[in-house]
Write the structure tokens for this entry.
Amino acid sequence: SAIHSNRRGSEEAIRFFAQAINTKGVLQKTKYRSMWLINLAYMTLGDYPDKVPVEYRIPEKAFETEVQFKKFKNVAPDLGLATDSLAGGVIVEDMDGDNDMDVIVSSWEKSESLRFYENQEAEGFIEKTKITNLNEIPGGLNLTPADYDNDGDIDIYVSRGAWLWDQGKIPDSLLQRQDDGTYLDVTYMAGMGRENYPSQAAAWADYDNDGDLDLFVGNEHSLSNGAIAERNGQVAGIVAPSQLFQNQGDGTFIDVAELAGVKNYRFCKGCSWGDLNDDRWPDLVVSNLSGENRLYINNRDGTFKDMAQEAGITEPFNSFPVWVWDFNNDGLQDIFIAGYTGSTSSYMRYALGERIENAPQTFGHYIAQGDLKFKNLAKVQGLDGPVLTMGANFGDLNNDGFLDFYLGTGQPDIAELVPNQMFFNERGLAVHDVTMAIGMGHLQKGHAISFVDIDNDGDQDVFQQMGGAKRVDKYRDSLYANPGHNNHWIKIRLEGVISNRSAIGAKIKVTIGGGERSIYRSINTGGSFGANPLQEHIGLGAFKKIDKIEIFWPTSNTSQVFSNISADQSIVIKEGDESFKKVNNISFLIDGYSTQ
């Protein structure tokens, strides 16, 4: 809990909000917002619910959950990871090849550089920003990692200019990791700096199956988007087509978006690749704000066709983060799109049980039905409330083999304080909001998220980059330590040879229980705002043995099969090899939460 020892600020806020609520003729939106905020003020004093006047109290049932979870604790300050900054991105990955996870964070504040934290295991994290040359690299709102040059280490794409409309023509950066561990900005040498547009969305994939990674950059086109084309009463639109950078295999890229038919011409807030029709060729989902979403199906000839309407995934109309995953482990790729619709006023009305007629769709929880048809199960599974999603990602909280997800929430307005939300996937059949049970309802502005086993103890912790858009709205990053749930797991890192070395797009099928269960994964970095490691962490439930691991490589159209594998280990599988290599991970305690 976070109880204020100095009560003065909250007590004054309570008086102010009470006055606003009871002012004659007050706007309904202002009244509901003040009701929400007065509840938060009482919470900071430890006086909720007893001292909150019943006529504007949030019912306690609004915080109840049907599923109980062990509490996760924020250990970022203990490990040296509580960076204080504005909104930004995060990469958690083994950047230096020593078999533990390092952290890179950014802020969209122009005067702040990227920051690199090296994992020193039990000693915590040591900042090595200057040594890696990242102190010379201005920040950005999002970070997208991959080994684009197939040299065995992770490079970084930095997105900039988001939300700035015509003032957002700020160059992005392609950062190539050098052999000495430093990063070199090769954007212009690589041919990526010719046109600059506002953006925060980018995603790597080998869309042409030639063995190297290409990059889609989703830009914020706003000239014809109605309401968002105006800002402060002034036209603020910009022509900003999205870009598709085709890797030429020699360190350079060519923008082929027009030829490919993926220029979008909408206000893109997220993008994600996945083989949605199971034909070996990556398809592309694009989420748009104030515009229909796109589903670009790969025609396998360098072009794409938008089939979002036919597939039924055009909503939410105000979309933000997006990802492709297998929610129910049926072997078909599903799509999740979170909306950016609501306010503290609508959160309060929802908590009171009021429902707004003709409210816009806030989630696209699209489950594949086969033949490129999807069914939105959002409302059926209780995902129907207001949501202001920004950062988001997914992982397996309790190692049961089903993917859960965490949403970072907020708006630039500093008064828009709403809890970040954690959702538990119950065997692919239902979704439960376990935010309060798990203790991760942080009220500060939640941006990029990564699910990662930071301490190598066999369960996934959750890192979240915090902070708002305005300079008065900085906040410290969080790392929530997983207390463990006594289930088994395996970590698999794939290494492409004919395929791209990062193995992005490769598929994993794990069979357990004598064929009783299969678990499916595709290699990517997760959601569109925040980067999971490219090492795949797969929960196995109670099973100590894996019957079979099958790897499918789309580029080479080949498979590998390994049988009778012990659980609770980390392995590396190289494309074409007949055996795998075991990796020796050193686990360490964080706040006594290690499960090994």
Observations:
- Confidence is low (pLDDT under 50) at residues 225-230.
- Residues 28-44 form the longest helix (17 residues).
- The domain at 87-460 is CATH 2.120.10.70 (Neuraminidase).
